[in-house]
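Worked problem 6 (solution included).
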Amino acid sequence: MNSEDKEIFDLMVSLSEEESRRLLEDVDFGEEELSCDQRNRIKNNVLRELEKTPAKTRRELKKSLIAASALALIIFTGFTPPGKKAVAEIIKRLYFIPGVGSVQESKGRELYVLSKPIRASFNGGEIVVKSVVKDRSSLSLELEGDKYIEAEAFASIFITAENGNSYNKQTYSLGSGGSIWTGNLGFSNVPEDMRSFYIILPDKSSIHVALRLGESFGNYSEMGPTDIKNNLGITLVPSKQEDKMKFNLIEHPSANRKIAEYGQQVDLDNYGKYDISLKDDLGRQYELDYPKQFSSPLSEFYFVPKEDAKNYIVEIPEVSLTYKIDKSIKFQIPKEGELELNKYYDISGYTFTIKKAVRTGNNIRIYVDTNYDNAKVENLSELKIIAINSERSMGYSWNVKRDNRTVEYYEFDFKGNSKNIDLRISEFKTILNGPWKFQFPAK
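Solution. The predicted structure is:
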């Protein structure tokens, strides 16, 4: 790749994923090979425009004509094999992972997946192979069970290929709520051409797994109905599951934020009912069900369809978002009783006020005003505290206002005679208004 070609390629890789995809859609690839004169003319035009363009604006989509020309040049010229490979690798494909309803990106590689969950008897109950994803020599398993399992027993699970070779996990994680557990196993040394294998459980029983080539998509809208509101994109992926309809909600990823919750709980005292609405083309409302064991955010929902329905409409009025940060805030606290503070803080453009501190013995309440405003699209709702006066602690509680779902106060035990407090915050949560609307056919 010569210096001029590299300069054009550097522009292409500076574009965001979405910009690259949109450019690819705009370019007519065709089969015709460009002449040497045509190639030089495109190259000169591109480089001339690049000289006029400040580096900081090269990411802007309004420069798509330049980038599209660059892409056409790369595609159509007699580019070297390394150059062609480099271009192919900037084009990401999206793979929908059945079973867990998530999306995984892959650059220039094919993923193999489990088409649907596998259920088997284990430990006096049931075990479910929810998801398998294979990327070259790496393989990940997600398992779920309804009978308690020791961490040591879970970590002993391994896989055996059809030829009898066995492979042990390199990483694992296990979480449980009561008797129900969910765990992940990661393997990094399996054969690239392995398409089926056995999962060997702690009791030496086995589950046969056969993988298929995952279905890939060039963009989210190919996967299902998509809506973008207030710079947040969500895609709904509908499917049929036995006698029910299922849909998964897929977040379009962002570098600095993540969806914590789709919709809001209707009743704070009774967990499980959300204000996500579902109706059909005849205006009938449907009750939504969901898995009892899930990883946050809850993004998989079920309902019983009606035979005469032609279309379904889902609406999500708002979402909760989390942002990762590392910030400390310091303020005074009383030795006993109440101290008015009214200290104003700004975290990444979101403001809040520490109104007062109330101390009774070792118990302290910190009252907070998140400056909630109905007219704003996004409001701060909650702070996550990971340390109090440099001592790592998760031992605190908080109370939420019922009218706007923002935090009212934090409460924790605080020992010592310090007159000041230093709270280290690792993330904050906001509520972003929509609505996001999706329509999909009954069939």
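Discussion: The chain is about 15% helix and 45% strand.
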